[in-house]
Amino acid sequence: MKLWFKSGSPWVWMTAGAVSVSLISVIGLLLLIASRGLTYFWPADIHQFEITTQAGVSKTIIGEIYEKEQVPTQQLVESGVLFKETQGETVERLLIKTGNREYVDLDFQWLLTTYIQQESTPTGLAVFERSKNGNFYGYLDSIIQDGKVVTENKNQLLAELIERAVELNDKALDLQNGEIGAINYEFERLRLKQRKHELEGDLTEQVKLEIEAQRDALQAEYLTYEKELFEYRNLAKRDSVIIKDMRGELVTIQLNYILDVIFPNDMSTIEKLGQFGKQIGKFIVNDPREANTEGGVFPAIFGTVFMVMLMAVIVTPFGVIAAVYLHEYAGNSAITKIIRISVINLAGVPSIVYGVFGLGFFVYMFGGSIDQLFYPEALPGPTFGTPGMLWSALTLAILTLPVVIVSTEEGLSRIPGSLRQGSLALGATKAETLWRIVIPMASPAIMTGLILAVARAAGEVAPLMLVGVVKMAPTLPLDGNFPFVHLDRKFMHLGFHIYDVGFQSPNVEAARPLVYATSFLLVTVIVALNITAIGIRNHLREKYKALDH
Predict the structure, then answer these.
(1) How sure is the predictor about 546, in pLDDT bands with cuts at 50, 70 and 90?
(2) Residue 59 lies inside a defined structural domain of this protein
(3) Can you tell me the distance from the alpha carbon of 430 to that of 413, in angstroms, rounded to the nearest whole number?
(4) In terms of domains, do 178 and 66 share one?
(5) 471 and 325, same structural domain?
(6) Percent of the chain scored above 70 by pLDDT?
(7) Nearest CA among 89, 79, 74, 85 for reference residue 114
(8) Of 282, 255, 39, nearest to 136 (Cα)?
(9) With the CA atoms of 340, 343, 344 and 346 taken in that order, what torsion angle do they form, in degrees rounded to the nearest 10?
């Protein structure tokens, strides 16, 4: 036994066991998040409950079962619930998503199984996904197509009419965000141009006439697009659907508010799988709705990836230059040691402190100065003197800078000094040696630092709340308006989206599955970014392997 311990085998097995436990824990956590999140997109069966309330009133409830739990009977009795029959120690209750937000107090409600007289999953029950007020559950009664009531081949006709309405709404939205948005952007530029001439004192009549002529031309173009926009909207409003809800009443809903309709109880497993994939696709490519509790998260995905890429472009050169200077040029003096210790300590500073620094220095001081020097015509409205994409990327670049510096220095220290000496002996300058020999060989270490930086930056939320991220961004930082990349704009972020939906949502029950789904998506985005960086690192490692020999 002593020889076994002296051989070091127990420590090897202990280390392997710790790594295995950690790996299993991480995989288990990811599976938990995935299972809770992906079930959000599965077309669950719609149940119809015939219940008798405590007051003896009979009514019907239609909806999806979101959750089941056992509640102590004594707790229910103490809260005022009366039971006609003797119950066990616990009573099961169901969380039902009833939708139909306009006609019920809450679109989620708890239902005790003791009140249920009959439960079924009847065919013909439809789920209408709407652009506002959430889902609507009920039976399809009839369709009003161009003023005529249609009661035959309703399901097929409804799908065609919804597709038509969605296409018209998409055209209207594209027109509003595209051509009309560009015209509004040009109107603002003309206003700022006129204001700039006023500040410079050269607003002549000729300049006024030129600006007015441009404004008139834009106004004429705007009226043309506005007319086209109203035509699309009116066409989308043409048809309606009549639905019988759980109250037994007929409700008419215009199809321009309906995005999709499915009949889950009538679908096979294959059809549900197809709908499952469709819902995931819509979640990724669509914009959020209903205070971020409905719709997709595309702006948050775009903002997260764009911000991380911009941060990587900023932090990499600064980190590499700092590491090269500390390792190759700076002597081993007391000042250099202090700088290294400071860099290492910076990695332990709470991220919110970086956010406060970014808000004070980048936004108010640096951004405010840029506004006064280059955008005086926009004042007092800030251009760069307000939180935005650029300041978020710079703040996270400073936050992750120590990681890149330390990793790059480690890579530089592993390169044999003989390679430097051989290069210098052959007549290369020190700068040439660094550029052609040292930095290429250290590039895998640089990529390692970048991988760690990206992994940390993509999940940070606290500093971004101060320097640029918002609940809902009206436009993306990248569009078709000159200069095309707008780093002064605020943006959405997956991490902040999770916080907002999970803790600031007015409808907590509806938001809970969405929190898991967005969390899984954020992990997926980070893994995808890291895999890309690891692939580049491995390519560089193979490319410059020959220099080691």
Answers:
(1) low
(2) yes
(3) 16
(4) no
(5) yes
(6) 97
(7) 85
(8) 255
(9) 160
